[in-house]
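Case study.
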Amino acid sequence: MKRAAQATETPQVGRSVPRLEAAQKVTGRADYVHNLRLPGMLYGKVFRASVAHGRIRGIDTSAAQAVGGVYRVVTAAEIRAIVPEPYHGPAFHDQPILAIDKVRHIGEPVAVVLAADPHVAEEAAALVVADYEELPAVFDEVEAVDSPAIVHEALKPAGTFPDLKHLKGRTNTNVALDFHLRRGDAERVLAAADHVFEHTFRTQQVMHTPLEPLVSVAEPREGSLTIHTASQSPSFVRIELARLLGWPENRIRVRTPFVGGGFGAKLYIKLEALVAVLALLTRRPVKVALTMEEQFFTITKHAATFKIRSGVAQDGRITARQCEVWWNGGAYADIGPRVTQKSGFTACGPYDIEHVAIDSYALYTNLPPAGALRGFGIPQLVWAYESHTDLIARALGMDPIAFRRKNILREGRQQATGTPMQDAAIDKVLERLAVLLDWEQPFERGSGPLRRGRGVAIGFKACISPTTSVAMVNLTADGSCIVYCGTVDMGQGSDTALAQIAGEVLNLPTESISVVHSDTDVTPYDMATLGSRSLFHMGNAVRLAAEDARAKFRALAAEVGLEDAEGPIVDVFRRKYGMQAGNVIGTASYVPSYTPPDYATGLTPNATPFWMVGGTGVEVEVDTETGHVRIARLVNVADVGTPINPKIVATQLSGAAIMQLGFTMFERMEFDAAGQLRNASLAEYKIPGMLDLPAEMTSEAVVAEQRTGPFGAKGVGESGTFGVSPAIANAIEDAVGVRLTSLPLTAEAVYRALCAARGEPLGDDR
Amino acid sequence: MSATPRTIRFRLNGQPVTAQVAPHENLIEVLQARFGLYGARESCGQGLCGCCTVIVDARAVSGCLFLAAFADGAEVATVEHAEGEAALDAVQEAFIEAGAFQCGFCTPGFVLMTRQLLAENPDPDDDEIRHYLSGNLCRCAAYPEIIDAVRLAASKNRRQS
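After joint prediction, the assembly is written out as follows.
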């Protein structure tokens, strides 16, 4: 690249550049779909199911329709006039835009009232009446395996996935997907093992709770539709709406400005198909904005049950492990089958185990749907295998870190799938935790009612594969640069990091680069912003696109005889076009190599483009009189490769850990026996606030490099969640000798366990 | 929804304004729909998250629970206020320098509460910061950075005065 006036010798990557959009955010001027109002716009308010499982006998909309100011009330019948098969989903086409024939969970959308005044729509929606023939319902993921209550009459896998084809048309089952991995002969080795340990762990259903609740707006034009949506996957929205409507992709435009938090809630189709059909039916712009309460009925995180069994040799080596995991997917599959498989294959943990058997099941139940939430199932798995690991070490009288040191997967060794570990600093993360915790030093254990303990846990995750990102880098005639990419900045700082990558290649200051947000008419395809994939995949695409722009610019400079000139970039364009005009556009796509797992064994030599590693160490203080647990210290260490922006990386790590602290200590969706959620509001569903922070907190990335990543970097959005829950449970046992096997670790749960341990169980625990 | 709208007059970010408001409309709806101010935003709808923070007569209120009609005659300020020529005040600068946000949806509420905290207590310790800001939620959990930002803003203010 030529030395332009504004160019810089300073490296752009590795620098803690403040977020490019920082001023917009602190002044309240950042653009969210939440803010969007269009002329003539109607507001849609959803009428929701009041039974967990029922056949719809009839829907009476007359009272709602009679409310002054109501424009129209819409049910599935009207939708089918324009979309005959209105079922969507990323893995299974099982979710209707509005309920058809049956409702499958309380809170499922049944009808929508449209009005120019949202208060009118809300008032009228309360007047819709539906009549149901109630059906038996199932809520527990393990019971769902054999339950006579069947949530879906037949499985409807999306046609595009070869590995789901065998499920098509399967009836009389709630098992949406079963994934199996067999490496060696775990059964035989367990039978002969020196020690065998078996435990069962459970996690609860929780919700993402983005503070910008789900919101979409559809804007109809003649023969086309523009969807403005708070979405993590604009390209998916375009393709799925095109499929539903039978339109070519270019008639649907999906735009996403900044997103007020996502965490996996805003993926695939949520409100987009609904606003699209409403706009087509009314020929008016339509906005549907959920309340915080409605979000709880829309998308959640899987509750899970995990049975884990390990054989351990006399010397402390784990020789075999069996894992059975049941994922509570709720009423619609969403991305649950992919969680089951693509996270399932790491269920045996970051350990070097010769004989492994994994069975992982995605279950339908009559609860609100579950999808991806910051970790794609990994935090549920780590909760189980790291609690189990700690229990084994204790039973063998071994130090928990020494036990892990003996068993962890080291560079080059094969993970359970047979994929060799590369650029996965599991050992470094473990050792750094030990140092930060002063693990070898004596530990003050407290006295009287306050007892102190400490614990560690480490987890790992394979990035979902294969996925594609495409990017464009535009070098304008004055030498300024615009990056076009479909990655959605929902707070993770992708605009800034991707600008740093382009700036590094083009030798331009990051602050001078602008990033165009997702607009599927403008920005090229991107699979989605999920699973910590963007910095790696889009980062590589932007790097390659910037290199392409650089090469094209050099060719242009050579063409006009300025290849060796030191002047500003604009000279080259002036020489070529006779004035400040033209531009150079670099493009690139990035898709890593991948080998799908063998269907029968789950084995593959190439399961993932990169591994994420995260570990947590905690010190807790337990009040034995109340069960209250105070987190005195929380230490997070991760392998993030080489950070592009160290400050944003540290914030991502600590933010993820604090979020997981909520899922660990108090967040829980509570259902009554009828499947009705009892705490669908922030008044009753508490998320972490300032006063829930650990007294002391450290987040750190180990020195590492992801050689295939852009400038050595890889994803970081989820790694801070992995170890938090089991590290705290391990520390509680270390402090007071009781083991909790279900989340959350409330004071009540600790107190009950303490009472039971001293032989005085509370009445309802007897 | 047949309730009769009434006209209210108040000062908004220093300027006298009037608005037709229905009895059920809250302050956020009026700020957004009539004045195009989106910095205060409704999230939980229960006054528990702080995203809708607005300053009414020099006191922070939850705009989602504050009926617009009660703003009649009041002095109302939003995060958009105090954007003078310099654009950013010490609190906003400190939030940027400390990297005290991720998605930014809750940030205006934190900025307003921090201004109010520092007006009452120019040199708060960490415990005072945590308690004062405990009514504002950040799901991205940039809390450690927010605490840093408040301390930084306090020191910026001290340097200026």
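Observations recorded in class. The mean pLDDT of chain B is 95. Chain B touches chain A through 56 residues (CB under 8 Å). We will return to this complex in the next lecture.
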